[in-house]
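Margin note from the TA: students keep mixing up input and output lines. Inputs are the sequences; the output is the structure of the whole complex. Example:
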Amino acid sequence: KQEVTQIPAALSVPEGENLVLNCSFTDSAIYNLQWFRQDPGKGLTSLLLIQSSQREQTSGRLNASLDKSSGRSTLYIAASQPGDSATYLCAVMGGSEKLVFGKGTKLTVNP
Amino acid sequence: DTGVSQNPRHKITKRGQNVTFRCDPISEHNRLYWYRQTLGQGPEFLTYFQNEAQLEKSRLLSDRFSAERPKGSFSTLEIQRTEQGDSAMYLCASSGPRGDNEKLFFGSGTQLSVL
């Protein structure tokens, strides 16, 4: 059974800092890994999708890496801004269509 | 296209009542998903449709839950004889076929409170 763990559960940083969010998964037989952002009381916004054959994906100030063999992914956020404050969720899709989510990392960027 | 639309945004009901939620996916997406999320947790998979066919169902989905996607367009999720443990955010998502536009796009969710 696939399990996804995200560390830390919460993170508070000053504006402008670069930061890394971590995600680990127990079954390396994945099809893809996705990072999402969720604002309070809202749905999820897809940030980055990494196929199992890829090592990283970049979008603007965001960079996600994937090390399938070790069951790890990181989300790097450069030059953080208060608007980046949200919960960031990592999810993996295996052979079925089911995305398995971690519990998320709640990020607060202080002005 | 305005994205995935879910109605209603909020639903308050009494225990034992039936409720139905609606999801309108992005029009060109053939894959549709329902998830459930409780406070402090990540979303949990409930069910998946490819076009009109329901191809996967979680064991979380008891016989009180039923989902449909007639004609492969909008989808409904019905909960019969609601229980307090059904209180959660119900999220719908859609995506394109595998190999093409696989990112999941989520709606804003329906927040269900069972009193």
